[in-house]
Design goal:
Length: about 230
């Protein structure tokens, strides 16, 4: 019989989390084959907010936060609560009291496909929260759900222990087993982009690949250029 609560699972290591936290979510998504970014509806409450850590996954029914309370009781310091709230915005699933407890517990942040409330107070406590928005309605605490299972959050599969990196652009999830292989690719991309930006600032604004891409797309004829 499958349990609804999985307490023990392998997490992406703290060392890999630290290294990954150096990169923007966009960089990691690019080197991950332009995949792993949650739907843009899930955004930081404030642009300065950032998160990096392993996912502690939670599935709830819309408008009910019973299992989030349970997940908080099971969380380890550094975990990121990643909550499948079904994209519901009719009631907030978390507010000041729960976020204060999360911060006290050492939870790294919250990513929730649902709504929160008390956004000004969360801003003041400087606890990173990514959600689909806010709603003043409170939740119920009656309906069972699951913890530590694979969930769908923002249209992306998130498994317990996967890497979460979130910033002003949105939320990236990386499969735990792939994180280490992504890091050197991310470093190289940062270096390549820095080189390109430096060239642009010196006046080299043309994209060397553009004409060929336009020919392949049929916009330009062979031998033709912009």
């Amino acid at each position: 019989m499958t349990t609804d609560i999985v307490r023990d699972f392998e997490r992406v290591s703290p060392a890999l989390v630290r290294q990954a936290s150096e990169f923007q979510a966009a960089i990691l998504a690019d080197v991950n084959g332009r995949r792993g970014a949650l739907h843009g509806r899930i955004a930081a409450l404030r642009p300065r907010m950032k998160i990096a850590g392993p996912a502690l996954t939670v599935e709830v029914r819309p408008g009910d936060n019973l299992m989030i309370h349970a997940a908080m009781a099971l969380a380890r310091p550094g975990d990121v609560l990643v909550i499948d709230g079904k994209g519901d915005q009719t009631a907030a699933l978390m507010g000041t009291i729960m976020m204060t407890a999360c911060k006290q517990l050492g939870i790294a942040g919250v990513v929730i496909d649902g709504a929160v409330r008390d956004s000004l107070e969360i801003d003041e406590m400087d606890f990173p929260v990514f959600s689909v928005g806010t709603n003043p309605n409170g939740p119920t605490k009656n309906v069972p759900g699951r913890i530590g299972h694979a969930i769908s959050c923002g249209g992306v599969t998130v498994r317990p222990g996967d890497l979460i990196v979130a910033d002003a652009d949105g939320v990236f999830v990386g499969e735990r087993e792939r994180v280490e292989s992504l890091l050197p690719l991310a470093r190289k991309k940062v270096e390549d982009e820095s080189t390109r930006i430096a060239a642009i600032r010196k006046g080299n604004t043309s994209a060397s690949w553009l004409d060929a891409a336009l020919r392949t797309a049929g916009v330009l004829k062979q031998g033709e250029s912009l």
